[in-house]
Amino acid sequence: MDKTIASKRVAEVELSKTVRVPGVPENYGDPDVDQNFGGGATVPQPGGNTKTTISGNSNTKVKDVDGRPLPYGPEDILMHEFTGHVFRRIIGEGNGDAIDEENEAREEMNLPLREFESNPPHPR
Ligand SMILES: [Zn+2]
Q1: Distance between Cα 85 and ligand 1 center (Å)
Q2: Residue 84 alpha carbon to ligand 1 centre in Å
Q3: Which residues make Cβ contacts (< 8 Å) with residue 110, sequence separation at least 6?
């Protein structure tokens, strides 16, 4: 965490229904945050910066480790994006196992753990 705090890279957050992906022509149409990314996406930006986009909606498809529906609001989505994607990227360590990283934070906060997903965007 010290390296993350010391990083000069910028982690930007926006609220939007779609995600702009650098390098993808605009006429392709920007992907929908809810339909394509479960309510949140973190996209690498030039210079090692990151941009996280959340829709502000809940994700109703997330399950806990016992397979039960896990209440998963925009605050959970934002926590996932930061613990699972932003922190590693801004120190140049790429993507780790985002759900494992999220679950470490959930454990510290005594929140139910999130189930691993075998489908993209989180294959192990
Ligand atoms: Zn993720």
Answers
A1: 6
A2: 6
A3: none
Residue 43 lies in a domain: yes
pLDDT in tens, 77-118: 999 999 999 988 888 877 678 999 999 999 999 999 999 887
What is the reported pTM?
0.89
Query: Is the residue at 118 inside a domain?
Result: no
DSSP letters spanning 61-97 = T-BBTTSSB----HHHHHHHHIIIIIHHHHTT-----
Ligand 1 centre distance from Cα of residue 97 (Å): 9
Please tell me the total count of domains within the chain.
1
CA of 103 to the centre of ligand 1 (A): 12
